[in-house]
Amino acid sequence: MKSNIYPIVLMLTSTMMAASASNWIAIWVGMEINLLAFIPLIKNKSMETSSSMMNYFLAQSLGSMILLFTVLINSLIMLPPNMINEMINIAMITSILIKLGCPPFHFWLPKTMNSMNWDSCMWLMTWQKLAPMTAMFQLTEKSSITTTVALLATTWGSLGGINQTSLRMMMGYSSMTHMGWMITLSTISSNWLMYLIIYSSTVLVLCFQFKKMNALYINQLTTVNKPNKTIMLINMMSMGGLPPFLGFLPKWMTIQSCIQSNEIMQILIMSLLSLMTLFFYLKMVMAPMLSSSIIQKQMKNRSSFTMMFIVNLTLPLMIILI
């Protein structure tokens, strides 16, 4: 753990540098330092570590190269100003999407996460999104492709996680879906940061639970004890955005903002696709819930099962209201 202190401090500092920078060169420098600081955190005892480190390095380097090239060549393009602005904006958004692992440039993300430990996965799904999303927020208001990108991210993230059995890959595809919602919200308001904070808190609790159980695949969740099953159920429902859980709040902010901006069709499609993500969230939690004889007996006893269901729903709401 002591050997990771310096990379973690460097990663935190570089992210804050990139997020608070006032020009694109400083943002690029901060992201490059962040890249070099995060790579040592990926290393573990697995034989697949070298491949995941190389995939992450190549993807991030490609995004950084496109970003830097676009920033430097901006004043040299011999095109009308309106065409320059649109082309430069699209190229810069492309570089950020590569860094985020957002569709259609997502192919490195699930494979990289599948060979990482849960600590690295937690960093990648939470803190590592802050600097790219801050840069994305400065670009999305001027771009015409953000709607397509958001819908593509939500669709691919929903479809990609359905047939997976690896918990890390399922969390990776779930991350893509939430990126689509965050990008949509970033085009309308600055509340995407609140979305990221709430999403990160849910992911941290869930990944910490998986780490504690040493679970990497769905079939390893069948031996979970009853308290952990209840916590997992609540977290999964929150990740799916079901009311009255905490995860519904950022999605409700996005829905409300889209309705006010007259983006009815886009938010309707994204809401329907969220039902598909809820399917593989339930797939993760139903195996341990149905494998326990205690839970099966409670399902036979309708009053006990109803009481358990009511408690699981109302407890998070009471915590939020308090």
UniProtKB/TrEMBL annotation:
Membrane topology: Multi-pass membrane protein
UniProt-listed InterPro entries: Complex_I_Subunit_2, NADH_UbQ_OxRdtase_chain2, ND/Mrp_TM
Keyword match Transmembrane helix: yes
Catalytic activity: a ubiquinone + NADH + 5 H(+)(in) = a ubiquinol + NAD(+) + 4 H(+)(out)
Keyword Transmembrane helix: yes
Membrane-spanning segments: 21-42, 54-77, 89-109, 192-210, 231-252, 264-282, 303-321
Pfam families assigned: Proton_antipo_M
Keywords: Electron transport, Membrane, Mitochondrion, Mitochondrion inner membrane, NAD, Respiratory chain, Translocase, Transmembrane, Transmembrane helix, Transport, Ubiquinone
GO function term, MF aspect, one: NADH dehydrogenase (ubiquinone) activity
Gene Ontology biological-process annotations: mitochondrial electron transport, NADH to ubiquinone
Coiled coil start-end: none
Entry EC number(s): 7.1.1.2
Annotated GO CC locations: mitochondrial inner membrane
Subcellular localization(s) per the UniProt record: Mitochondrion inner membrane
Domain (NADH:quinone oxidoreductase/Mrp antiporter transmembrane) ranges: 21-277
Record family assignment: Belongs to the complex I subunit 2 family.
PANTHER family: NADH-UBIQUINONE OXIDOREDUCTASE CHAIN 2
Function in brief: Core subunit of the mitochondrial membrane respiratory chain NADH dehydrogenase (Complex I) that is believed to belong to the minimal assembly required for catalysis. Complex I functions in the transfer of electrons from NADH to the respiratory chain. The immediate electron acceptor for the enzyme is believed to be ubiquinone.
The protein's name: NADH-ubiquinone oxidoreductase chain 2
Protein species of origin: Aneurus similis
Gene of this entry: ND2
